[in-house]
Amino acid sequence: MSKRTILALVAVAVLVVSSTTAGLMNPSPALAGGPVGFRALKGAEAAAFRVPADANRVSSASMARYGLTAERYQQYYGKALVLGAQLTVYRDAKGTNVAVIGAHYPKLDVRNQVKLNAKAAQSIVTKKLGADGEWFVDLMVDPETGIYFYRVENQRFDSRWFYWVDAQSGAVLNAYNGLTDGYGIGVLGDVKDLTGLTTYVSGAYKMISADGRQTTYDAGNRKKLPGTLASDSNDIWDLAGRTSPGQHALVDAHFYARVTDNYYLGTHSFNWLAYYPQGMVSSAHLGRNYANAYWNGSQMAYGDGDGVTFIEMCGDLDVVAHELSHGVTDATSDLIYSYESGALNEAFSDIMGTSIEFYYGTGNWTIGEDIMPTDDGIRDMADPTTDGDPSHYADRYTGTSDGGGVHTNSGIANHWFYLLVNGGQNANPLRASGTDVVGIGLSAAEQIVFLAFTGLPEDASYCDARAATIAVAGSYAANVADAWDEVGVDVALCGQ
Q1: Which residues are catalytic?
Q2: Which of 35, 214, 389, 476 has the fewest beta carbons under 10 Å from its own?
Q3: Which has the closest alpha carbon to 448: 418, 426, 422, 480?
């Protein structure tokens, strides 16, 4: 065993998973370029962090899966809430801070005065909406502009309007409907509910989710990102057409981003905004007949395909989830995208993409089948050999093309995951051991992968992946090892 592998084991040894318990997620620092005031602390810095005196606790949530409690704090400037200034402090069972994520603005430059009261601000909105419904008014300050404003909320059975009213002049700074009844037609002709996923701004509905976590653009069949913010006059996104301005691709890119976000947040407590404050940004209709989709480090981009081999690339949930999972890797292990670490990078995205399809209720073991009218997918985790990929380490690609085979050798880890979930033997009868792996089911397997793969060093090898997954597997360690043995990443190769 190499020294580096030993260190990797030590680093992840605390992340022990069993059928009832889990270890600690170790958040990465915030990416550069975030808004002023944002921070993501861990280790000694997190332990030494003290909540600022101007921040009040607004909630406390248990994250039992990771042995943490998340306490959320809101910053105030006098009596005004500071827009976007919330801090989440993660504490372990002993009450020690293990991570701090959020934003705090210690030096605010306020540029206007509060000359209106809450009643006056509400009356300005009442003239636009009428007096019906329930009303809520909060005084706030925007740390970016230094403007005091009232956030006026009106709730009715069919709407939830928010107006931002300048606290000095009474001017309406922003208005949006936080609860819409819109829907859209996806690439495959299915109807998707877009409630909460669009916002009414300046006379049209925009593909900005009410909580700001998802934003989608139409690239206009150009190769410049992000393009134009997707817009519709009546919130019925049904305009046909494979290319721009067709809306089917926009609907799927936006909707599937939300499904992916919900999965990571709910299943693994991974908050995308803690690493990417801009949220999940997507652009559909990239280029002309462009048969590819990618994550560029800050946003997603999808081509429309050629209409023959591929249709719109965002029309398959596992493709969208795969690409967004590269963003998770960027934020955590940052696996180098070449050779074995690159294959593990690709495999993590395939594994998470497939897990998200099962989470959504449409799961299967092929990748990209919904966007390939004449084929059954790009890769097959149940039998990678059907697409020319190896299911065993001895059959790995050893050349230099495709970054050393990142899209080919991912088949080894893909098949390992399939066997870990379902049990059985290697799909290649020439490599099958003759002894069945005992499967542990999807829930336990995906948790092991998330904890281990996000904790890997950036240049990880297949043997490192074996060691890390065994270290976090708890009572499933033997199952994990057996599945690796079945794909050739065994003791003879790795010495463990």
Answers
A1: 323, 407
A2: 35
A3: 480
